[in-house]
Design a protein that fits this description.
The protein is an alpha/beta fold. The protein has two domains: 166 residues, Rossmann fold; 140 residues, Rossmann fold, CATH 3.40.50.10750. The protein contains 13 helices and eleven strands. It has a six-stranded mixed sheet with strand order 8-7-9-6-5-10, sandwiched between helices. A five-stranded parallel sheet has the order 3-2-1-4-11, with helices on both faces. Strand 2, helix 3 and strand 3 form a beta-alpha-beta unit. The radius of gyration is 20 Å and the shape is globular. The protein starts with a helix and ends in a 5-residue tail after the last helix.
């Protein structure tokens, strides 16, 4: 069974409620119809009646809960609590009302804050910043987490590498240029995400243009230092670096470039040194390797709030909703 089909089955075993704030996008409703028909999750769609009616024409979303912020009874409570959360930052009650009523991502996060939903999926027609800023202001990071980061689950067809072609790529969606301590934290979070979602032992390669000292540069030193921190602070994580991509994945190359490494040639979690390489890498694999790319998903949040690529399909949205439901099953707030 393919990765996403397994995730859907897990989602069905303990139904969670996921909020979709992008009622202005047809893909939201195409995905919602599938999710509701297959009983993957309960859905809340935020929007006014006319916008939802226009964008859902011909689709059966009758099982979804429609929340119109202008008529929903809990809207005043959401506004009041949002104001209390942000008043120390200079926000006025009127500003709080304007944001909640006009930015449905903020509204969706307040629904999760109140326990009226278990997670949010957005980003089909909004930037990552527009999705994650409200999340960080309202839901915040999981207690004890060192940082929030973004990752993709990549499912590559007919691939002998990784976990039958399934990988996590991180950070490919959020942190621009993580320092060694942040790279180590991203690796530890990604290992946990891989184990939780894929169900196999994570084997983490910290990538570089260098393998085991073949090049000298501050960018290489950053990765080497991250591995040192990992071994000290997260000894339970199976990780190694710095490794070039071929050394990380291909056993024959690993024997030549990184003999003795238990990670080289076996990696299923790929940690990129910066956001540029992570974003370029996942899109290369998606577009040229015909891989399914789910994300950018977030890790380190108190509740699951997941982003989408603006180039996503309705099928991609279905997959991310299922993943979000499974994350919610794991009680990320604990």
């Amino acid at each position: 069974m393919e990765f996403i089909e397994k995730i859907k089955e897990r989602a069905k075993s303990d139904i969670k409620t996921i909020v979709l704030p992008e009622s202005m996008d047809r893909r939201t409703f195409e995905a919602a119809e599938v999710v509701l028909r297959e009983n993957i999750a309960d859905l809340i769609i935020i929007g006014t009646d006319d916008v939802i009616s226009e964008n859902s024409k011909g689709l059966d979303i009758s099982k979804a809960k429609i929340v119109n912020p202008y008529t929903y009874k809990k809207t005043p409570d959401y506004i009041d609590v949002f104001y209390e959360l942000r008043k120390s930052k200079g926000m006025t009650p009127q500003q709080a009302k304007d944001i909640i009523m006009n930015d449905y991502m903020y509204y969706a996060c307040m629904m999760v804050k109140f326990g009226d939903a278990d997670g949010v999926v957005s980003g089909a027609c909004h930037s990552t910043a527009s999705t994650l800023k409200p999340s960080l202001q309202i839901i915040k990071a999981k207690p004890g987490t060192k940082m929030v980061s973004g990752f993709f689950v990549m499912c590559v067809p007919d691939c002998e590498f990784g976990a039958d072609g399934t990988f996590i790529f991180a950070d490919a969606g959020l942190n621009q240029n993580p320092n060694p301590e942040e790279l180590a934290a991203i690796t530890e979070s990604s290992a946990r995400s891989f184990e939780m979602l894929v169900g196999e032992k994570p084997i983490c390669a910290l990538l570089s243009h260098s393998t085991k000292g073949s090049a000298k540069h501050p960018d290489v030193t950053k990765v080497v230092d991250a591995v040192t921190i990992l071994k000290k602070n997260y000894p339970h994580v199976m990780a190694d670096g710095e490794l070039q991509l071929d050394a990380a994945l291909v056993p024959e190359v690993a024997k030549l470039k990184a003999p003795g490494s238990t990670v080289a040639g076996n990696a299923n979690v790929l940690i990129f040194p910066d956001l540029d390489s992570g974003n370029i890498g996942y899109k290369l694999v998606q577009r040229l390797g015909k891989a399914e790319a789910y994300g950018p998903l977030t890790q380190g949040m108190a509740k699951p709030i997941n982003d989408l690529s603006r180039g996503c399909t309705a099928s991609d949205i279905v997959g991310v909703i299922a993943i979000t439901a499974v994350q919610a099953q794991h009680r990320l707030d604990r």
